[in-house]
Design brief:
Pseudouridine synthase, EC 5.4.99.-, alpha+beta, PsdUridine_synth_cat_dom_sf, Structural Genomics Hypothetical 15.5 Kd Protein In mrcA-pckA Intergenic Region, Chain A, ten-stranded mixed sheet, isomerase activity
Length: about 300
């Protein structure tokens, strides 16, 4: 098994070395070294080194093998593909619309029922398989990014950490805000007494930043747009709850959660910088009907 990439050198890479191309494309140094040591680099079908100079329209070929990756094989047990709703797919990645109540990934070997199990079944006829890039909490719905080979997994991870992939959410929360937009910047760490939870300003808390914008209000509640600038566990849920606006239906942080049919948090939009490309894409997940039922929101 191997994954071969044939990449046309763009004008912006004129007189780059092969090493500079690999760095620009965010290929981890460890994998760069393995490509070099394994002599799996070619320019215009001629064996190349990382010091080889490339020119616009040259073809750089990279041949990746399983030992290059920490998780080379996707081993999710295929489950029913009936619930899969794709929002976008190309040869390297896809975005799926995850329903609320479905896990992003299995927690135990052989476990089924998660989105990645469903995608394993959906992709099986094509010979492809899903690789996890980021996860949504079980009760969160919306756009979830999945890789289709191990080559792009570390690249997408880096694009997320470098904020070249942006994740935007909608949430119905309790109460009204004094300002129509702003940010929450309290550091987040493990809750001191409940290991299921996270909280702000606790020992060993890590920096966290969430931007918010009020979209709509009812008599008692607010619909807000949320943008993650960092990726801490439960970040949106904790930042909102700690600032007096728990997400409606949150079983951990909303004291009145039992009134709502679900956690009212939806990953509405992904802005994705595509690997090995200057192109980006924007993918939007349709807003669930319950988010539009403003006549019912105050009852939750």
């Amino acid at each position: 098994m191997h994954w071969t990439y044939r990449l046309t050198i763009p004008t912006a890479f004129a007189n780059f070395t092969v090493r500079a191309c690999l760095q620009h494309w965010l290929i981890p140094k460890r994998i760069q070294g393995q490509l070099r040591q394994g002599r799996r680099l070619w320019v215009n079908k001629v064996p190349a080194s990382v010091a080889t100079i490339v020119h616009p329209a040259d073809q750089l070929t990279l041949d990746f093998i399983p030992s290059d990756f920490r998780t080379p094989i996707s081993s999710y047990q295929p489950d029913s593909a009936a619930t899969v709703q794709l929002l976008y797919q190309d040869s390297e990645l896809l975005v799926v619309n995850k329903p609320a109540g479905v896990k992003s990934h299995p927690n135990q070997p052989g476990e089924v029922g998660s989105i990645l199990n469903h995608l394993a079944a959906y992709l099986a006829p094509t010979g492809q398989a899903p690789y996890m890039v980021h996860r949504l909490d079980q009760m969160t719905s919306g756009a979830m990014l999945v890789a289709l080979n191990p080559v792009v997994v570390p690249i997408l991870d880096r694009l997320i950490s470098d904020k070249q992939i942006h994740r935007t959410y909608y949430a119905w929360v309790r109460g009204h805000f004094e300002q129509a937009q702003g940010s929450f910047s309290e550091p987040i760490g493990r809750h001191p007494t409940d290991k299921r939870k996270r909280w702000i300003d606790v020992p060993e808390a890590q920096p966290a930043l969430t931007d918010y914008r009020v979209i709509q209000t009812t008599q008692q509640q607010s619909l807000v747009e949320l943008t993650l600038q960092t990726g801490r566990t439960h970040q949106l849920r904790v930042h909102l709850a700690a600032n007096g606006h728990p997400i409606i239906g949150d079983p951990l942080y909303d004291p009145q959660a039992g009134k709502a049919p679900r956690l009212l948090l939806h990953a509405i939009r992904l802005h994705i910088q595509r690997p090995f490309s200057t192109a980006s894409i924007d993918v939007e997940a349709p807003l669930p009907a319950i988010f539009k039922a403003t006549d019912q929101i105050d009852q939750f």
